[in-house]
Structure formats: C-alpha cells, structure tokens
Amino acid sequence: RTVYVNGDYLPETEARVSIFDRGFLMADGVYEVTSVLDGKLIDFAGHAARLTRSLAELDMAAPVTMDELLTIHRELVARNGINEGMVYLQVTRGNPGDRDFAFPDPAKTPSTLVLFTQDKPGLAANPQAKIGLKVISIDDIRWGRRDIKTVQLLYPSMGKMMAKKAGVDDAWFVEDGFVTEGTSNNAYIVKGNRIITRNLGNEILHGITRAAVLRFAREAQMEVEERAFTLAEAATADEAFITSASAFVMPVVQIDGTAIGTGKPGPVASRLREIYLDEMRKAAV
Ligand code: PLP
Fold first, then answer.
1. Distance, CA of 239 to chain centre
2. Is the ipTM of this complex over 0.95?
3. Does the fold of domain 128-283 match that of domain 2-119?
4. Domain extents for the chain?
5. Rg (CA), the chain
6. How many CB atoms lie within 10 A of CB 92?
7. Cα distances (angstroms) measured from residue 125 to each of 39, 184, 221, 248
C-alpha cells in the first residue's frame, strides 16, 4: 500500500511518525473516514466540513487546505487502485519532541497528517444489508464532546468487544435511559412512516451519512423526528437501522435479544440504503 505522511507518498513499511507525537501519547487528534465507490469519493465535501469543525473545536490548525486534501485522497485512491473501500485521514497535534500536557506552540510544532486507503471490494453489495445487525445496549461512558471526531476510540473498541463476546454485531450506547448512538454509527428507529434519531448536540457525532440520509428521507416524504428515544421505544419499533460512511444504511434486527419488527430488515431501511447509494454514487467526486 502507498500511504501519505506529511507531504510524502510512501510504501506503508517506510512511513514513520515520532513516538512523541501527541496522537500516540495523548489521543490528541481527529480523523475522518470517507468511502470510495466506483473509484470516487462519497461526500468528500461533508467530511471536509466536519474535519474543519473538529480541528477548530480543538484549536488545531488545518495542515493543508481542503482542496489539497481532496487531491491527496484522489492520489491515494489512484495509486492504490481502489474501486470500493475507504480513505482514512488523521490529523494530530504533532510532535513537540517531548511529553507535556500543555498544547505546543503551533508555529513550532506542525500537525501530523496521515492518510491511508482500505481496499474493500463488495463494500456496497455487503450481504449483511439483507440480514441486518444484532446489537446489545451498553452504558455510554464516553467523554462529553462526542461531536468532535477524535481518535479516542478505546471505549468504542471495548463496546465492539462486548458485542463480540455477547455473540452479536455491535453495541448501542445508552445514557440517562436514552440511546445516543452506535459504537461507530448513528442509531435510528422507524415507526410507520416516521424515522426517529437522536437530535444533534455534544452527545453524538454529527454523522455525515446521517445528514444525507435525513435529507433523502424528507425528500421521499418520510417524516423525520430528531429526538432522543429509549430502548423500550426501540423494542416496539417497526424497524431500526444505523448509518455510517462505511456501512451506509444498515438494518438492525435485534436489540438485547429482542427482535425489532419482523426480525428482518425492514422496507424503510432497505429503501433508504438504496436511495443513499444511488444518489451518493451520482454525486461522488
Ligand atoms: N457515530 C460515531 C460514534 C462514529 O464513530 C461514526 C463514524 O465513524 C458515526 C456516528 C457515523 O458518522 P459518519 O456517517 O460521518 O461516518
């Protein structure tokens, strides 16, 4: 694989980052994952906008312009011959040459920019979409700024492991009795023609896929309610699903052992997946 590190395209075995990098020592960094379909980037503009916001919220300078970032994405997709897959991007607060809690002076410590591709043939035709996911609920004990896409992914990783141990696919986080989101995705339930998903705030990541899917749902005359919902409400819903850049729209058919609706992927989730993939392929860059 050819990867990108601070201005250079290198074989992955030659890419190097300092042991003093604040991403490594303090998880002081942000990231984005952009899907590739037909060799093109899905919603690059959305991911670039969220990256800009994440950086601003953490007082980090953008290492390159968003135009340059698009060029780097495209270059990596081309060099690695990616038809379907993802581009992972990470910006950290760089290498101050030592360990210190205080942020280094950005004039002396440039941020570290790293990108790499993940080849995933069959990403859009994922057979899981016809089966759906089983999830468990777990306590949301993450920090209070989940709207910033930081690389602090230890608890989501633990959540995925709890799901694995329970013999299911993923976990939904619950805080004060209400579902926040999935370990790496936004969570939804469906009641009739109504789609219910957590309102934006500091409690969840502002999903780029979420924004697009809600727009398509409204355009298709579905009702959208952005509000918190409980597990009890989810248990009696007609359908459930999740969204993320790499899963697109994925049905959820079981929560904590309770079948949702028929226990099979529902028509709303399936239709939204189809619309999302169709529309986003057309708009891909
Ligand atoms: N919520 C969390 C916690 C995530 O980690 C992700 C994606 O990684 C999402 C939601 C979905 O966001 P997006 O649709 O931008 O991929």
1. 21
2. yes
3. no
4. 2-119, 128-283
5. 19
6. 25
7. 15, 20, 26, 11
The CATH H-level superfamily of 128-283 is D-amino Acid Aminotransferase, subunit A, domain 2 (3.20.10.10)
Q: Can you read off the two tokens belonging to residue 49? A: 């906008």
**Structure token pair of residue 139:** 């306590």
- Widest distance between CA atoms in the chain: 59
Q: How far is the CA of 173 from the centre of ligand 1 (A)?
A: 13
Question: Is 149 a catalytic site residue?
Answer: yes
The response to whether residue 181 sits with its C-beta less than 6 Å from ligand 1 reads yes
141 Cβ contact list (under 8 Å, min separation 6): 155
Q: Does the beta carbon of 208 sit less than 6 angstroms from any atom of ligand 1?
A: yes
The identity of residue 171, as a single letter, is A
Q: What is the pLDDT of residue 36?
A: 98
Backbone angles phi, psi at 61, to 5 degrees: -80, 145
> Which residue numbers in the chain have pLDDT < 70?
none
Tell me what pLDDT residue 88 has.
Answer: 99
DSSP string across 3-59: EEETTEEEEGGG----TT-HHHHH--EEEEEEEEETTEESSHHHHHHHHHHHHHHTT
Give the three-state DSSP class for 284: coil
Among the options 149, 160, 165, 191, which is catalytic?
A: 149
Helices (H) then strands (E): counts for the chain? 8, 15
Domain at 2-119: CATH code: 3.30.470.10
| pTM given for the model | 0.98
